[in-house]
Amino acid sequence: MSEEVPTEALLYFNSAEARTIDAFAAQIIPSEEGSPGAHEAGVVYYIDRALAGFMRDLQSLYRRGLHVLDGLSSDAFGAGFSALEPHQQRQLVEALDARAAAEPDDFAGQFFRIVREHTVQGFFGDPAYGGNRDVVGWKLVGFPGAQWGYTAEQMKPGVDARSIPILTVGDLYARIGEGRS
Amino acid sequence: MTEKFDAIIVGLGSAGGILAEQLTKAGARVLGLDKGADYSEDDFAVKQDELRYYQRGAIVSGVSVDPVTWRPDENTTARILPWSAGALGSDEPLYGMPSIGIGGGTLHWGCAAYRFREADFRMRSAIADRFGEAALPEGSTVADWPISYADLEPYYEKVEWEQGYSGRAGNIKGEFAPGTNPFEPPRNRDYPMPPVPQGPGDIPWVAATERLGMHPFRQPLALNSTEYRGRSACLNCGFCHGYPCHVGAKSTTHVTSVPAAKLTGNLDLRTHSRVLRVNRTADGKRVIGVTYVDNADVVHEVEAPIVILTAYALENVRLMLVSGIDGNGQVGANFMTHNFGWFASILPEPTNPFLGTFNASSAVDDFTSELVPDNDLGVLWGSPVISVTGDLQPIEAYHLMNPGVRKFGLEFKHWMRDNYTHMHRMYSQTTNFPYRKHYVDLDPVIKDRWGVPAIRITHEWDDHDAHSVELFGGIKRRIAAEMGAKETWMDSPRPPYHLSTHDVGVHRMGYDPQTSVTDPFGAVHGIDGLYAVGGGSFVSYGGYNPNQTIQALAYLSADRLIERFGGTAA
């Protein structure tokens, strides 16, 4: 089992909140043997940094959502979400997914959809934003990332996408920097 | 003293950039006002960032700055676009207003470059001839255009050569080349460049449509396939639709017309300058100039005998309405927008959908416009069916994924792992008829931070829209089955969006001031010197992307304006 969060600075969440979001995101994109998930990708750090900056309008929504989530968790299993067994967490997420489908205006269901959206962003967005560490999201699906371009050979049918070395926005900045020096 | 110019252009985008080039080259002193930035090459040097551009909409005009509201009908209170202003923190460029800044919507567009067909200009007559007058949708204001394809053909050609389009002509003066589009309207000349490299996912699509007896052709694109006029060929980076270009390969007036206008020395370009209203003489019959606010919040009045609104169809309407110009109630009427009927497949072979631009692929015109097949659904006008093989990043793939798959847990993770590199998409752009009940006006409550009312859309998909999506969904389903698709799914025939940057018709062209706003050259009826140019002028809306026709109309307007100045066209 990997280390518990937080292992590095937080910009918005407190430690307990970070552990809850980390566990919640791990239910949306789970980890497997040899196949990292939202936890290893650092999704919680993506969401934390986004809430401190671009998504600051959603800060109070997250506070309320975390409160509601822990309330549901305590009602069902007598403990906060991050303290539950994985199968209990899974059960709660299934219930939230069903609520989101059945009652589009239900807050708990909406909060689940919002955290899922941000989990996907943190898993598949560029690592510069704090998630997708070691480009695990791109490795999973076969996305080569931030490429300057693709050659005629790479455009041909039958090319294995996972054979193309993955690049990030940071890699491209390093390249144009070298080109100019 | 008030500054005076020969002409003021409001919005240096797709049409405004062209007008700026043509008028300054003819010797006019032009003031160009744009509410966005004039980006430098450095701004876009590294733009391969899905979160920044596609999910967070870095270069589009977001609803927090430029609010737009929508309601399905007059009995409902309008809300800020519910499909793009949710709490999900996403502001996808596809279903909002276009990008802003020099280049406008052409900064972020997918480069789809279609001429309209001959019949598209006489939609009402063509439908009446084939199906009878009674078949026209009840209450629709659909009409024939006051200009024909032949009138616009030289301007279409000018767009292709001046702005740099690539493709392969099917019909040069009635001569059909083998393996091209046999349904193409006649043209005088081929494209200046051949098509861009084809995405691998398009190859099974072409084979399947051919086996089904259709006639696939490579889509024309406003994108360099070779170096053209000092601009690079496309590098197939796959961050194109919704993104700016990092090498200047995409045709945008930001790198074509506006730099040319600057070189004349006749363009005074002011960015971050937001026009608040159009000013007229006391009797309202002649334009004087405009009032704008700069980014230090200083308000300026500037004068010119010619004011050209090229700020996007909806913004043109907003500016006219806040200036008290309603054109006998015609300003804002006849709103039309496209319904895309998105259809996705998982193919047996890899499509590698991150390769190349959105439309580095093929289409068929077998069912477009007047070629719509006989059908029991009452569909009167057809659309191309378009293959999309590139430009798909993983977050967007998640948004488009099969709605039948659970979106959490290992089922979700494994679906993305196994299917992302095999995704293929198709779309059509079915005809949205104009109606009196579909219009844009000023929202009575919501205002922007400068106190200007938001634009309000009143629009709902009608039966013809939904039936068109179903009819073309059937065609897409046949193609997908022929490709051996393992999974397929399709968007709702009545999708949530009603705004997509393909929004037109709201300052219709015509000769009768009771039923139109401008003449075919963009001159607003009854107000000397005021012009409105762009998709707002469209009279009807077939299945092709609007931009090449917008640019052709800009060149047409420019010729008329240059005559007025007594200059010579470039």
What order do the helices and strands come in, and which of them pair?
The complex is a heterodimer of chains A (181) and B (570).
Chain A: H1 15-28, H2 38-41, H3 43-52, H4 59-77, H5 86-102, H6 107-124, H7 136-141, H8 169-180
Helix pairs in contact in A: 1-3, 1-5, 3-6, 4-6, 5-6
Chain B: E1 3-4, E2 7-10, H1 14-25, E3 30-33, H2 50-55, E4 68-71, E5 79-80, H3 123-131, H4 149-163, E6 171-172, E7 175-176, H5 202-211, E8 217-218, H6 257-263, E9 267-270, E10 274-280, E11 287-293, E12 299-303, E13 307-309, H7 313-322, E14 343-346, E15 362-364, E16 385-388, H8 394-400, H9 409-419, E17 423-427, E18 439-447, E19 453-458, H10 463-482, E20 487-490, E21 530-532, H11 547-565
Parallel strand pairs in B: 1-12, 2-3, 2-13, 3-9, 4-19, 13-21
Antiparallel strand pairs in B: 4-5, 6-7, 8-15, 10-11, 11-12, 14-17, 14-20, 15-16, 16-17, 18-19
Helix pairs in contact in B: 1-6, 1-11, 4-11
Task: List descriptors.
heterodimer; A: 181 residues; mainly alpha; B: 570 residues; alpha/beta; 6-stranded antiparallel sheet; globular
